[in-house]
Design a protein that fits this description.
Layout lengths: L1 H26 L18 H29 L5 H45 L3
Helix pairs in contact: 2-3
Length: 127
């Protein structure tokens, strides 16, 4: 009976230690990026820049189309059709300006980060 209590006590102690270990491991933050460094080098990668540039090209193409329509409407009589078109144009134009605000903000942060990284590399030497 005494030996059974010892075995059960050891078993419960091992289970407790394992549960605490598993709980601490599962509570730790998980990062899927194995190549991430602590110096924020991967804060901006080429994928972000390429995505923003593709979006900019799309918006610029849309702007060219809207500008062509605007020129065509400049030579016509302005009636109800023009008012409908103009409402759609203004709605699109607000979206366009919003995108450009975000685009410029991204690039200002990107260049600020890039310049700080460049100055850091030149000061401490690149590896």
């Amino acid at each position: 009976m005494l030996e059974m209590k010892k075995i059960l006590g050891i078993f419960l102690a091992v289970c407790f230690v394992l549960s605490v270990t598993v709980a601490s491991v599962s509570a730790a933050p998980w990062d899927n990026d194995r190549h991430k460094r602590d110096d924020n080098r991967n804060k901006f990668d080429n994928h972000d820049r390429i995505k923003w540039n593709k979006d900019k090209i799309k918006w610029d193409n849309d702007k060219r189309k809207w500008d062509n329509d605007k020129r065509k409407w400049g030579n016509k009589k302005h009636g109800n059709e023009y008012k409908k078109w103009y409402k759609m144009y203004i709605s699109w134009f607000v979206s366009y300006k919003t995108f450009y605000g975000y685009y410029n903000k991204f690039y200002s942060y990107y260049y600020e980060y890039y310049e700080s990284y460049r100055s850091y590399s030149s000061h401490y030497g690149s590896r």
